[in-house]
Specification:
By secondary structure, the protein is an alpha+beta fold. The strands form two sheets. The chain has a five-stranded mixed beta sheet, with no helix packed on it. It has a five-stranded mixed beta sheet with strand order 4-10-9-6-7, with helices on one face. The N and C termini lie far apart (65 Å). The N terminus is likely disordered.
């Protein structure tokens, strides 16, 4: 009986490890189409206005090799995200964001609910394993700092500089629970 229990415990541990490691691929998946941009390489700025569950503009045209500064303003009453990725990346990140909300790390109106919280024991959110280098679960606050995404509190603005290295089937979206499903997404179109 102990042998069977040991095998079951090993299988559960391996399954948990696989589940925690899988998001690392999604977290670095942006590298297939881009990277953090440098301010000195910016050729243009795109202004994004987020409202409660819409973007303006709803379509962004880019070129492979282009570095863009995105000025993202949240004109809504809720917390919103501007995240550039594939549909599959957004699906994965929506699960992560749901877990963050359920744990109290953020609220419907503030990303700052995360500050100072120790979420190292939160199931499925081992960011060290997941490749979230900027998400420190010790004394420092957790950051949402992937180069392809920015969270913006209501009434605030943030900037993000991103370099598109090659064409891909991309969209920008808000992955806060319920926002993507209500239509808060737009298309990234590559021109030649």
């Amino acid at each position: 009986m102990r042998f069977v229990t040991s095998i079951a415990a090993t299988v559960l541990a391996l399954t948990a490890a696989v589940v925690q490691v899988q998001p690392a691929a999604a977290d670095s998946a942006y590298q297939a189409f881009g990277t953090r941009g440098r301010a000195q390489d910016v050729k243009r700025t795109v202004d994004i206005v987020m409202r409660d569950n819409s973007y303006q503009p709803q379509r962004i045209q880019v070129r492979a090799g282009e570095t863009i500064r995105f000025r993202v303003r949240n004109a809504g009453e809720l917390l919103h995200e501007f995240n550039i990725g594939t549909a599959i990346m957004h699906q994965q990140h929506q699960r992560e964001m749901q877990a963050m909300f359920e744990s109290g790390m953020m609220s419907a109106t503030s990303k700052d609910a995360m500050a100072g919280m120790d979420h190292s024991n939160m199931p499925g959110m081992n960011h060290g394993v997941m490749g979230h280098g900027g998400m420190n679960h010790g004394a420092a606050p957790m950051r949402h700092d992937d180069p392809n995404a920015v969270l913006v509190n209501p009434g605030k603005a943030e900037e993000m500089i991103f370099r598109f290295t090659k064409a891909a089937d991309l969209e920008f979206a808000c992955n806060i629970p319920g926002h993507y499903e209500s239509g808060m997404m737009g298309k990234v179109v590559f021109s030649r």
